[in-house]
Amino acid sequence: MTSRRRFLAALPGSVLLSGCAGLWRASAPPAADALHVRLPTFTREPLAGGATLSCSPISQLATAEIGVSIAVGAADDPPDRPGFGRTAIAALLVGSLREELARLGAEPQIHWDDDGAAVSAVVEAADVPLALATVAERLRSRRFTSADLGMAVLETAPPGDDPSVLAALALRQAIFPAAHPYARGGVQTLAGVRGIEPDAVERHLSARLGPERLAFVVAGAADTDAVAAALAPVLQGMPSGTFTTPAVVAPASRERTAIVLVPRAGVDQCVLAAGCVGLPAAHPDALYLDLAALLLQWSLYERLREERGLTYGVAADHGEARHHGVFGVVTHVDAPATGMALRLLLDRLETLRRVPVDDAWVHKRIAVEFVREAYARQSADRRLHTALRLHRLGLALDHDERRYAAMQRFHAAALMHKLREFMGPERMAIVAVGDEKVVRPQLERAGHEVVVRTAADVLGV
Amino acid sequence: MPDPQTRVRKLANGLRVALVDEAGSGFVAVVVRYGVGARDDPPGRPGLAHLVEHLLFTGSRHTYRGDYFSFVADAQALAVNATTAADATTYRQVVPRENLERVLWLESDRMGFMAGQVSVRELELSRRIVDGELRQKLKNDARGAIYRALWNAAFPPPHPYCEPEDAAALIGVTVADVEAFHRDYYAPNNAVLVVAGALPGNAEALIERYFGELPAGREPPRAPVEPSKLRAEVQHELLARDRRARVAVAWPSAGVLTPGDAEADVVAAVLRQNLRGWLLARDGGIDLVLAQQHSMPDASLFVVEAQGRPGLAAGAVQAAIDRAIDRLARGDWEDMSFASASKSLRVDVLHRRSGLLERALAAAHDLARHDVADAAPQELARYAAVDPDGALRFAREVLRAGPRVVVRAGGGS
Questions:
Q1: What is the ipTM metric for this complex?
Q2: With CB atoms counted within 10 Å of each terminal CB, which end of chain A scores lower, N or C?
């Protein structure tokens, strides 16, 4: 058969196949709900003095993420020394302890927020008991050298003045009164640690750092019994703290009087941030604010990025905190477009309050959020940080499971109510970090009063 | 580590596929890695590979137009992203296993059916978004600006590792340019597909269905990467807004997987474990020290960074780094340091594959670079073969005697 005949003989089949292929390719395979997704869970057992050990095994790993949460936060600081406690705890974690853990191949990380601190590391399975016992011994003995304290002062010093860091700090300070423990975003001031003395650190720690404030966590490959056995003798007899954390009062909601502008000469983008006080992490309605943040993020992403190309990204979030979170949104925009971006932001906030969403949308988003959390917890890293986070927030380990179960009763009308309560554009604190010569005229032309704060003032240096 | 069930095959059109079967989680990760990156940008068009990556999110012939994220949200897709590196562009997502087919359909469509789909408006919009991304990451962020300065001094234009600080060079790029680039590089024979997780029984059949019909492309063009031509020390001062001085020093080093690359990783680990202590012992006021071998094909950079306390000049920070490098090159470090550093690299290799998506990304990387789906054993063997003498040789020949770039920023610079 000639090649031409072979081609003709095959033609009807090819055409048929090609036609069918075109049909199936042009039709989207249906999207289905997740049926096999579960939240991985933790086991928890009590240790001496009120400390706990939480474990979430992952059998196919050869390593484990280990961590210790220390629920001593900004509310435990002396009133006139913001950031003192963070530096005091850092003295235990950042210096010679790092060298001890390095012998196990670990490169420990320190994490901070308003509600406490955590140290975490990755180690091989066989080294988990020794690594956690090493950290426990350090916390129990409250042992640190003068070099450790010097390093702690440096490592907890106010951060560099990158525009995004300034925006986050300035927004905190616009939302919370100056004396509020959350006003510094967990960051020390130079005044808070000036002349810091080992004796004062020791007194601070001995009053606050009891076993009742500690949670040990392992996610990955580990022998739980061996870990508990290694921790028991170290924690036995560790004295409790005597300090009672003062009550943290939510600041009153108030109307915005001015936009805070932090000048950064010569920067060709402006960081625009807006936010208000949110809800405590344990509050049953906190999820509505999570959903509101998603709505705002998607909506602004469309308007600023997809329709106009004014920004690379938009991030909105209801940040969790033990006493009250922060609802916020931030974006980097071309500096000459700051006025337009702000107008779109305020317009979106107003629109979200007025245009109703339906129950189907709410439940679809809740399902996605559940799937997101379940996926995230597939990794040892995220499992560890989930347990550390829940401890710092004072929440039970099954908090997320119960929260998602409660969400099944959520409805759009309640979401709209929360949107109206929280997302008033007139109550959002607003911060712009950018070139004053470019940004200020745009804000003033739009009728906003502008208050200028220097970077040094925001950083507390 | 117990080996999950992994199957590797090659479709008739050249697409290499790895299926990593891990029952239990309910999720599947889908990763498509193309053998194209910034090194393949055409002359005069730095950033084109990155722009094409963005444009592939605007839709393909059979799937959707515009709102990609709503589209994948219907599939409850998570961790959706793409990255353009020097030698690869990687698309990734994780979905509940029920929605695997939808993602395979999407990925195959953007591999095979982009032609005729990009409008001039979408092209300009994406160029502006890329411009904003570059300026945010490389110009308006202190650390990004330092790294850009290091790379661009070690690999000045037109070297493919030179990074543009904005997308100005992409003004004037046409739809035809974009389509030609896609046609040249986004072909199944220049790609690796990894599907990992709770695989449904018909996973292989679905892959064959959606990707098997796509035609192979020509062998994609790729120019070799030249080593750095740096011959002496180059110093850069960045306009500094930060009151704390930050200094970064970079040495051109061996390309990934070539002799000297593993030694550089070990030395970086030794420095990470000791640098804080060494600097603090004598120099007080220095923190945030980092050391890393940034391994790239054919030419890498070894970078050390340190930041001083407020009031400490950049020159003092640099002098402290120099003293630490001298100490390293003298071999004035404990035997224990070498053992600890080797152990930390072992932990890192094992842990890099500790999440589902991370395992899929690692498999795509390993398949593309090593032609196996799990190169962890080879990585561990490479590090095990490094001895203290080899590490010391690297410290002496490269860090003490080799040409370098010094970038100083802040602290009154």
A1: 0.86
A2: N
